[in-house]
Amino acid sequence: MSRIGKRLTTIPAGVTVTEADRMLTVTGPRGSLTLGVPEHIDYTVEGDQVRFVLDPAFQETLNVMHGTTSARFSGIVKGVTEGFVKRLEIVGVGYKAAVDASNLTLFVGYSHSVPMKIPEGIKVEVTDNVKITMTGADAVGLGQFAQNVRKVRVPDHYKGKGIRYAGEKVRIKAGKKALSGA
After folding, report:
1. Given 3.40.950.10, 3.30.420.40, 3.90.930.12, 1.10.3720.10, which CATH number is that of 4-82?
2. Which family is annotated (predicted)?
3. I need a surface site. Which of 31, 56, 75, 86 has the fewest CB within 10 A?
4. CA-CA distance, 113 to 109, in Å (whole number)?
5. Is the dihedral of CA 27, 29, 31, 35 positive or negative?
6. Do domains 4-82 and 84-165 have the same CATH topology?
C-alpha cells in the first residue's frame, strides 16, 4: 500500500468538501476545484479529515494511483486555501511584457508581439516590464500556463536571453571563437 496514499489530509477551517458521483469538490477562499476519484479507490470524509483507501484486490495494479489521488487532493486543498505562485523573468535587451484585460503580451525579439490569453482562475502581474508573477489555485493549470509562456522564447545557452523561471540558472556555453583559442 502506498505510504502517501495512507496519509490523512486535514481540511482547514473555511474549506468545504462535497462529494457527488465519485467527484470531490473542494471550495475555499480562493475558488473551487474538482477531483475525480478512480473507480477502485474509496474515500471517506470524517469530520475535518479525508482518507483514501485502495481496494485490496487491485493493490498491485492501482498502488500508484492511490498515492497520486491522495497527493492531488492535498494539492487542491492547498490551492483553494493558500494558492500557488510562479515567477518568470525576461532577460534580453528590448524584451518586455505587458498585461491588459485578459491577455499577456510578450515582446521578445520577434518582428511581432506575442499575445497569450490568460486562462480563467489565473492572475498575472508584470513589474518592471520584465518580471511576471502568476498566481492561481490550480497548480497544474498554473504550471502549464507558465511553461507555455516560457516556450515563447526559451533561454538561449549562448547569450542567456529568453524567458526563464525566477532563480533559474542558465549555463552559458562558450562559442566557437572561445573554443578555437583566437
Report:
1. 3.90.930.12
2. Belongs to the universal ribosomal protein uL6 family.
3. 56
4. 9
5. negative
6. yes
Query: What's the sign of the alpha-carbon dihedral 116, 119, 120, 122?
Result: negative
Q: How does residue 174 score in pLDDT terms, banded at 50, 70 and 90?
A: confident
* In the chain, domain spans: 4-82, 84-165
CATH number belonging to domain 84-165: 3.90.930.12
- Tell me the pLDDT tens digit for each residue of 10-51: 999 999 999 888 899 999 999 999 999 888 888 888 888 998
Give me the DSSP letters along the chain.
--HHHH--EEPPTT-EEEEETTEEEEEETTEEEEEEPPTTEEEEEETTEEEEEE-GGGHHHHHHHHHHHHHHHHHHHHHHHT-EEEEEEEESTT-EEEEETTEEEEESSSSS-EEEEPPTTEEEEEETTTEEEEEES-HHHHHHHHHHHHHHTPPPTTT--EEEETT---PPPP-HHHHHT-
> What is the average per-residue pLDDT within 72-87?
95
- Would you say residue 152 has pLDDT above 80? yes
Taking the CB of residue 39, how many other CB atoms lie within 10 A of it?
Answer: 11
